[in-house]
Amino acid sequence: MTVQIFHNPRCSKSRETLALLNTHNINAEIVEYLKDTPSIETLQRIIKQLGFDSARQLMRTKEDLYKELALKEQHDETALVLAMHQHPKLIERPIVLHNDRAAIGRPPEAVLALFP
């Protein structure tokens, strides 16, 4: 069983999601995405696994950086993915990947749908 969590240890939802996985004896590889920035290809794969129509759905649109970069006006999907790659703080968290599926832990219990 391959499980990864894109984790920010400073984020309470991310910590809660990791604790929930541990409670259910689900061992996840922890990817601290702020230190180990996901590639453009990885971000595109995650967007597809989440079933999102737009990269914007994976973005933290309330971040000051989102506003500073004027991303609300950006409609080019490649540019949105590139912005997340260059500024991983813009990536919504936590993201749990299991095989070919993904879920965002907001609320943390949402990730349990990935597991039978």
From TrEMBL:
Its EC number is 1.20.4.1. One of its GO terms (molecular function) is arsenate reductase (glutaredoxin) activity. It holds the Pfam family ArsC. Keywords: Oxidoreductase. SUPFAM superfamilies: Thioredoxin-like. This is Arsenate reductase. Belongs to the ArsC family. The keyword Oxidoreductase applies. It comes from the Bacteria. It catalyses: [glutaredoxin]-dithiol + arsenate + glutathione + H(+) = glutathionyl-S-S-[glutaredoxin] + arsenite + H2O. InterPro entries: Arsenate_reductase (IPR006659), Arsenate_reductase-like (IPR006660), Thioredoxin-like_sf (IPR036249). Gene3D superfamilies: Glutaredoxin (3.40.30.10).
